[in-house]
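Example 3.2
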Amino acid sequence: MLQYILSQVAPGIGLSLANASEKAWMVQQINKAAKELYEGRDLVNVEREQLFALEGDDQQITMPYYVEQIRGVKRHNTRERLNLTDMRPRYKTQGWAESLLTWREKWKSPLKNPITTEAPVTLSIQDVEASAFTVIVTGSSPHSARITEAVTFAAGETEKVTTNPFSDITGFLNLTHHTYDVVMEDAEGVELSVLPNVADRAQYILLQVMDGALVTMEQPYLIEVLYKTAFLFMRNDYDEFVCPGYDDAIAWQTIGNCQAKHKPDEARLAFEKVRQILKGIDNDRSQSKDKTISFEGDGTNYPFGYPSARRFGLSAAPHIGLFPGADRP
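Structure, written as tokens:
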């Protein structure tokens, strides 16, 4: 929780939470440290899985904004694993139609639906904000390779229309903190993108899930996706880091970053604490994964542990798997 991390960082670097500007600076440094940890490795509990329903004629899809990277894909009904490639293998030979069991990850886009008509875009929020905030829209038109427009919602405003027409959007970014997500729609009312209030930018993974040369699927189908959840900024006192259990590591990482220039020895100690915390979390996770539980021993810790058959004068039974064939690879 951000409040706890702040309570650890403030005395560690000699700043006060009662000072608004100092607290704001610490929040900025905490998010920087948290992102360093997030990007440095796949943290424990950073992965999520979700079912997605696809239509039979879907050729390209976009993942929701909270999907940072895809780790695995399977068909829900058949449990078949789908291969995931980037765009290059398609061009290694003379070209081919992609297998039904292959997805191509193309790129990350701020749009989940393409713009079909060059026109100004409409931005809206669900309800009024207490104070003004600004978002940035960057894109292009037939007459301008790049257009950047800052759109400011004044307190009480819920809808804005860009001054410039856009034929493509390449960036949709947050500049200031606000409460509600910002929805972008085209001139026909089609939802193009959603800018989460806790993200620095709108971003969607674009995937080709079916080759146009192949026949389409006859029915809608379900896909299981394992993914790395996106990093979300902590701004309010009760905001949580995307992976629970890392508050102390974030606090020490922040302290180390802040002391690295003027107190390098103390910074090294802080970074060593981070290393120890991460190692402890990794070791704790591994304790419950792919372990064989032994039913042997003298049973002295019974009833707090598993009893030994021999303690009660019985013969130890042969090992039997929970399911038929469970012991076979």
